[in-house]
Amino acid sequence: MARRSILAALVAMIVFLSLCCSVYAQEEQPVPPVEEEEAPASGHIFLYKDGELVEVQRDLTGGNQMVEFAVLELLKGPSEEEAAAGYVTYIPEGVKLQYTTVKQDRSEFGVNLSRELMDLSGDTDGSLKALTQIVKTIQDASDIQTVGITVAGEAMGDPPQDAFEALGVSASEVEGGKQETEPAQESSNTGLVLGIVFGALGAVILAFLAFYFFKRRKPAEPKASGKKAAAKKPSGKKAKK
Q1: What is the DSSP string of the chain?
Q2: Are the C-beta atoms of 23 and 194 separated by less than 8 Å?
Q3: What pLDDT digit, counting tens, does each position of 66-110 carry?
């Protein structure tokens, strides 16, 4: 009976830890900025013309990092020909792509940009349009509708800031639907803490079960030897007669 209880507890613990690992696996995985170029593919970025958001065709490098190349093209702004035709961008000059993150189930894409984006502080309309350009470009290139945008911290080692909150713009105002933006670093830290907690909990449970198992087995050995000794005693008397 004791062995069955221990086995059931072990199975329950394994199932519990497996579920925890699957949750942790959903955490965002960082993707470094793009360096190597691949074969170009047709894509789009989003600029403004006559006050309207419009898509503009670009030759983007294909492969797994097509979204990063689309963001890099967007940050360049309109070409000379496009500017002459009336295309404009509200993203400040000098904004750089720091890194991107994407959940393994591709439910959310995150992008971290340099502090130059904060030049939009105080300009609510410009901030809204710039963030809309970024969100729409990422949605078009990735087919992921939930997009998070963060800005690098002010000092080295500071956590990233949520761009919507920092610029005073509601994520729901962005064209293309409501955005749920959570800083990538915060999500990553949450997953790490959960992994440590569940790992420690599993170790404690294993230690308790091991202690309980050996404690139950020790008293059983003297009883068994005592019965054998008692069984041999009558046979000794018969031999004497």
Answers
A1: -HHHHHHHHHHHHHHHHHHHHHHHTTSEEEEPPP-S---EEEEEEEEEETTEEEEEEEEEE-STTHHHHHHHHHHH---HHHHHTTEE--SPTT--EEEEEEETTSS-EEEEE-GGGGGGTT-HHHHHHHHHHHHHHHHHHH----EEEEE--SSTTPPPEEHHHHHT--GGGSTTS------HHHHHHHHHHHHHHHHHHHHHHHHHHHHHHHHHHTTHHHHHHHHHHHHHHHHHHHHH-
A2: yes
A3: 899 999 999 999 999 999 999 999 999 999 999 999 998 989 999
> Which residue from 74, 84, 80, 76 is spatially nearest to 54, judged by alpha carbons?
74
Distance of alpha carbon 117 from its chain centroid, rounded?
23
d(CA 162, CA 177): 18
Cα-atom radius of gyration of the chain, to the nearest Å? 31
pLDDT at 159 over 50: yes
Q: What length does the chain have?
A: 241
The string of pLDDT tens digits covering residues 30-72 is 555 555 445 566 789 999 999 999 999 988 876 778 899 999 9
Stated pTM of the model: 0.59
